[in-house]
From TrEMBL:
Keywords from the named record: Cytoplasm, Hydrolase, Protease, Thiol protease
Family assignment from sequence similarity: Belongs to the peptidase C1 family.
Places the protein is found: Cytoplasm
Reactions it catalyzes: Inactivates bleomycin B2 (a cytotoxic glycometallopeptide) by hydrolysis of a carboxyamide bond of beta-aminoalanine, but also shows general aminopeptidase activity. The specificity varies somewhat with source, but amino acid arylamides of Met, Leu and Ala are preferred
PANTHER family in UniProt: BLEOMYCIN HYDROLASE
The protein, known as: Bleomycin hydrolase
The EC number(s) this enzyme carries: 3.4.22.40
Domain of life: Eukaryota
InterPro entries per record: Papain-like_cys_pep_sf, Pept_cys_AS, Peptidase_C1B
Biological source species: Tegillarca granosa (Malaysian cockle)
Keyword Metal-binding listed: no
Length: 406
């Protein structure tokens, strides 16, 4: 039974939420959508525009491909991982290689991967690189790429590279083979997604009906000259809540082989109690800045009534005499019942009577199923920022904190 009564949709919001409404459709690009939606709220204020959408397909392409050597950013990263595993003596049927082969070209990602992409390639308005069929419905392209990269079909590229390593081939021979592989994948991605612009011109009317024009300009210069001064990706910090006993708070963590760019920024997490995630998200929203967050969106979720995430929205006890909430957050992580699956944007917060009047904690869903928030360092206490100076504890590649939002 779904309960939608007493649901309040009115909260204090950031000044500009952004429009039009965006839709990732049949793809796993939520992390990109959420990032660009957070950025546009600041850009819309600066340029005084009433609607704005940045191209998700543009970043989606560069997550796959690299302009410099016609390679593939994420696939290059994974091919290097296969080589590294072979050099370390990891067996092809071992747990690590098996995990890396599971879905190496999946659509999903993490915040620090977005920093890699935006800092290197910039962003463009959607009209300069619109969605295409293979970005809106990415499954077929993913199957083709995984045919070359993953455990399905042939395990072709991993097999060939690891065989070269096991046979004692030179580094030059290994890299030459890898480049040939990446060129093949680059061709597939370019045909599926199209080629993104090297320069663009953005023309728009502001809220005063005044015509404006920026460009021709390179996407990375557009980001660095016009967007980075008001939304600096490198100033945003990932704060996670991992309550498992072995992963203590006030520590820095990363996950082995989690990334999308060789030589790029490492994925880093500062582990904090969930109440700190709430406090920091609230501070950001009250200051007018939306918050990218990662959660397990499928739990206690009802589309009825506009999409509700609440521990009490589905009453299984009434119908079946049972509950799906018999495990703690830590236990759900440990036993594979929950992990981060989706990224969205927080634009409003109830800052009054947040615990209600006897109906229970109104942010209890956040406590149980939100795992990550991205906050500008200016809202984070110095004591937490000091954690970034630590050498990160490396969690195994298959750890649930290495899950990707899609």
């Amino acid at each position: 039974m779904v309960k939608t009564e007493k649901v309040n949709f009115l909260f204090p919001k950031i000044p500009t939420e952004g429009k039009p409404m965006t839709n990732q459709k049949s793809s796993g690009r939520c992390w990109i959508f959420a990032c660009l939606n957070v950025i546009r709220t600041q850009v819309m204020k600066k340029f005084k525009v009433e609607d704005l959408e940045f191209s998700q397909n543009y970043l989606f392409f560069w997550d796959k491909a690299s302009r410099q050597i016609h390679s593939i950013e994420r696939i290059n990263y994974m091919l290097e991982a296969y080589i590294d595993c072979a050099q370390k003596g990891e067996k092809p049927d071992g747990r690590l290689v098996h995990h890396l082969l599971h879905n190496p070209t999946e659509d999903g990602g993490q915040w620090d991967m977005l920093i890699n992409l935006v800092e290197k390639y910039g962003i463009v308005p959607i009209q300069c690189c619109p969605d295409v069929q293979s970005s809106e419905s990415s499954m077929r392209m993913g199957r083709i790429l995984n045919n070359k990269m993953s455990k399905e079909m042939t395990r072709e590229f991993c097999m060939k590279l690891q065989k070269l390593v096991f046979d004692g081939s030179s580094e030059e021979a290994i890299q030459k083979t890898k480049i040939t592989m990446m060129e093949e994948i680059y061709r597939i991605v370019s045909i599926c997604l199209g080629s993104p612009p090297e320069t663009f011109t953005w023309e728009y009317y502001d809220s005063d009906k005044k015509y404006n024009k920026i460009g021709p300009i390179k996407p990375v210069d557009f980001y660095k000259n016009h967007i980075k001064p008001i939304y600096n990706m490198e100033d945003k910090i990932c704060i996670v809540n991992d309550p498992r006993e072995m992963n203590v708070y006030d520590k820095l963590y990363t996950v082995d082989y989690l990334g999308n760019m060789t030589g790029g920024k490492m994925v880093l997490y500062i582990n904090q109690p969930v109440d700190m995630l709430k406090k920091l998200a609230m501070a950001s929203i009250q200051a007018g800045e939306a918050v990218w967050f990662g959660c397990d969106v499928g739990k206690q979720f009802s589309r009825k009534g506009g999409g509700i995430l609440d521990l009490n929205v589905i009453d299984l006890d009434l119908v079946f005499g049972t509950s799906l909430l018999n495990m703690s957050k830590a236990e759900r992580l440990m036993y594979g019942e929950s992990l981060m699956t989706h990224a969205m944007v927080l634009t409003a917060v109830n800052i009054e009577n947040s615990w209600g009047d006897g109906d229970g904690d109104k942010d209890d869903w956040f406590s149980e199923f939100v795992y990550e928030v991205v906050i500008d360092k200016k809202y984070i206490p110095d004591t937490i920022l000091e954690v970034l100076k630590q050498t990160p504890t490396v969690l195994p590649a298959w750890d649930p904190m290495g899950s990707l939002a899609n």
